[in-house]
């Protein structure tokens, strides 16, 4: 799969939704967060664990658009520190969202709560060899 083409398509799709600034002053911050979750975060989080393998340079535009959208819905200027902005509004950055979704996936896999098709693709490291190592409890693909 060509991640560059996929991310470019996703970028143009998300960029259309970031155009909310024209009406943002008419809406409450709570409603803007709902719109963000529906129009932007939903697109970014769909299959996010698969996109984790894409080059960071391909994902950079998505990060920029996500940051712009968060600044827009919180009425922050472009010089506002993003870390405090995300923390204050209890939102996740794109890479944090990736780790969160991957963690959920691995939890379900570990507890046999996922599709049987996926379970066969993973195995614990300890099943690959008999060496007692520090990472032997981890799961690998």
Task: Describe this entry's structure for a reader.
By secondary structure, this protein is mostly helical. The protein has a domain at 3-93. It is 58% helix and 3% strand. The chain is elongated.
Count of helical regions: 7
Q: Numbering strands along the chain, what is their spatial order in the largest sheet?
A: 1-2
Label the structural class.
mainly alpha
Overall pLDDT score: 81
Largest sheet: 2 strands, antiparallel
3D shape: elongated
Q: What's the helical proportion of residues?
A: 55-70%
Report the portion of residues in β strands: under 5%
| Helix-strand topology string | HHHHHHHEE
Cα-atom radius of gyration: 19 Å
The end-to-end distance, rounded to whole angstroms, is 18 Å
Question: Are there runs of 5+ residues with pLDDT below 50, and where?
Answer: none
Number of strands: 2
Brief digest:
By secondary structure, the chain is mainly α. It is built from 7 helices and 2 strands.
Question: Which features characterize this protein?
Answer:
single chain, 141 residues, mainly alpha, two-stranded antiparallel ribbon, 7 helices, 2 strands, 58% helix
Topology:
Elements: H1 3-17, H2 29-45, H3 48-51, H4 56-73, H5 82-88, H6 94-110, H7 116-119, E1 123-124, E2 139-140
Antiparallel strand pairs: 1-2
Helix pairs in contact: 1-2, 1-4, 2-4
């Amino acid at each position: 799969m060509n991640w560059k083409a996929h991310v470019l398509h996703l970028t143009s799709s998300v960029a259309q939704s970031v155009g909310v600034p024209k009406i943002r002053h008419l809406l409450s911050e709570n409603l803007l967060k709902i719109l963000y979750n529906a129009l932007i975060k939903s697109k970014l989080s769909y299959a996010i664990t698969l996109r984790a393998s894409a080059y960071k340079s391909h994902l950079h535009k998505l990060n920029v658009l996500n940051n712009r959208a968060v600044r827009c819905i919180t009425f922050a200027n472009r010089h506002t520190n993003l870390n405090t902005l995300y923390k204050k509004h209890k939102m996740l950055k794109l890479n944090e969202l990736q780790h969160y979704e991957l963690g959920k996936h691995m939890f379900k896999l570990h507890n046999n709560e996922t599709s049987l098709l996926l379970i066969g693709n993973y195995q614990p490291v300890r099943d690959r060899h008999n060496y007692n190592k520090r990472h032997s409890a981890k799961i690998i693909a």
